[in-house]
Design goal:
Blueprint lengths: L9 E8 L6 H17 L4 E4 L26 H13 L2 E11 L2 E9 L5 E6 L5 E2 L2 E2 L13 E4 L2 E5 L8 H8 L5 E3 L5 E2 L1 H26 L2 E4 L3 E4 L2 E4 L3 E3 L5 E4 L6 E8 L2 H8 L23
Parallel strand pairs: 1-2, 2-3, 9-10, 10-12
Antiparallel strand pairs: 1-17, 3-4, 4-5, 6-7, 8-9, 11-14, 12-15, 13-14, 15-16
Helix pairs in contact: 1-2, 3-4
């Protein structure tokens, strides 16, 4: 694709794929160490996986887990903010937010390279599947779909289950997001992996690559890894360019920092060659706000 009419704007993106312990402190310390390592490798933006401060506790409905939630700002977000400032990187962190007594969210905080908090995204789509009993813990988000201006570009965030909804990606892109992050916790049931594992992983990756193509943006998904309870988290963290090409990808087992240079100038190039935004029929999409078109 010709590149003459836009200015190159390279940004280095890093995804932290890691195992987690039950105790909070070792996970936070590891995450901060990984942020530093990514910064040393040239990262400008670092995104952590979903609910990285502990095990994925939503495999059961247990009131004791509410004790692990914290406010934002709070201890973990402040530790991430200090790391962002120390290393001069933007940090996206996924936390179990205690907003008020009886009101909890699955929330991503966006911290600019000076350590300032520039945004919050509260997970909008909340699953209730076997071993993913999130409706017991999380109130659906009420901040809508947003993007946040940072030193290194405009960052959009959705969280895990949001990644299956094209409406969420579209609305986030329409706010000007250049990179859409999906902090994730998804894995296999080991006894289903042989029969369904490859298909499940392919669907997950394909869905987000399609968001990149349809919206002409970069998409990046850090996923946790390792065995926790009945789930084997499949890692596979990846970064897609606006053409849907996977430009960096993690392994299914083991920790790593997945990195790629994302030239934000490519967004305009792609959108002027595949002008999906130009050709949208916004006058014809009103029925998207209905649950179902009965009787049609």
């Amino acid at each position: 694709m010709p590149y003459d009419h836009v200015q190159s704007k390279p940004v280095s993106v890093a995804l932290v794929q890691m195992t987690c312990t039950e105790a909070r402190e070792p996970n936070v310390e590891k995450a901060i160490t990984r942020i530093g390592e990514a910064a040393e490798r040239g990262a400008n933006i670092v995104c952590l996986q979903e609910l990285f401060t502990g095990h994925y506790f939503c495999q059961s409905e247990d009131h004791r887990h509410f004790a692990s939630a914290e406010p934002i700002p709070g201890p973990t977000s402040q530790a991430l903010a200090a790391a962002a400032k120390k290393y001069g990187v933007v940090v996206v962190g996924s936390l179990f937010e205690r907003r008020a007594p009886g009101l909890y969210h699955n929330t991503a905080v966006v911290l600019d390279a000076d350590g300032s908090q520039v945004g919050l995204y509260r997970k909008m789509h909340i699953p209730d599947d076997p071993l993913y009993y999130e409706k017991f813990y999380f109130t659906p988000g009420d901040l809508g779909f947003q993007s946040f201006a940072t030193r290194f570009g405009k960052v959009g965030v959705c969280v895990c289950w949001d990644q299956w909804y094209p409406e969420a990606a579209r609305l986030t892109a329409l706010t000007g997001a250049e990179i859409l992050f999906y902090p994730t916790a998804i894995g296999w049931l080991p006894d289903e992996k042989e029969e369904f594992g490859a298909s499940q992983h392919s669907a997950w990756e394909t869905m987000m690559r399609s968001h990149a193509i349809a919206n002409g943006i970069f998409v990046a998904a850090p996923n946790r890894v390792g065995r926790e309870g009945a789930l084997q988290f499949w890692g596979g963290s990846f970064i897609s360019d606006p053409n849907g090409n996977v430009v960096a990808k993690g392994k299914h087992e083991g920790e790593e920092i997945v990195m790629a240079e994302c030239d934000l100038g490519l967004i305009d190039v792609v959108r002027t060659h595949w002008p999906f935004f130009r050709d949208r029929r916004i006058d014809a999409y009103g029925d998207l706000t209905k649950r179902y078109r009965d009787g049609v």
